[in-house]
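Hypothesis: this fold can be encoded by more than one sequence.
Test: take the structure tokens below, design a sequence, compare later.
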């Protein structure tokens, strides 16, 4: 299993969404990788299945990281520079290509 709360995604009954532990559109947290994980579309559309997601976050990251993410949402404003966004885009694109290649190799 990828994560314990992505049942439908893992069983192949629906597509994967980017599920955010702390749902927000604020720049300070929207691109935090520890706040975003694969999640089945059903769970994501039902407010993210917060109980299971919280248990997963505690197990994988611990209370300190959860508090850090909450602090980012509550207290920090962030403005990205164009170069930062371009670097993120390039990095994600490269990681995507590696993941696709890995999946094709293992099929």
């Amino acid at each position: 299993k990828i994560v314990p709360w992505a049942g439908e995604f893992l069983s192949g009954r629906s597509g994967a969404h980017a599920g955010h532990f702390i749902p927000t559109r604020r720049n300070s947290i929207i691109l935090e990788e520890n706040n975003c994980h694969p999640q089945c579309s059903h769970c994501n559309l039902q407010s993210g299945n917060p109980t299971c997601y919280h248990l997963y976050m505690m197990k994988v990251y611990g209370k300190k990281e959860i508090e850090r993410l909450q602090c980012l949402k509550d207290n920090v404003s962030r403005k990205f520079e164009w170069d930062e966004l371009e670097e993120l885009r390039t990095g994600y694109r490269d990681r995507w290509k590696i993941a696709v290649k890995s999946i094709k190799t293992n099929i």
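The chain is about 60% helix and 10% strand. The helical segments are 7-11, 27-30, 41-45, 50-60, 63-75, 82-106.
Hypothesis status: open.
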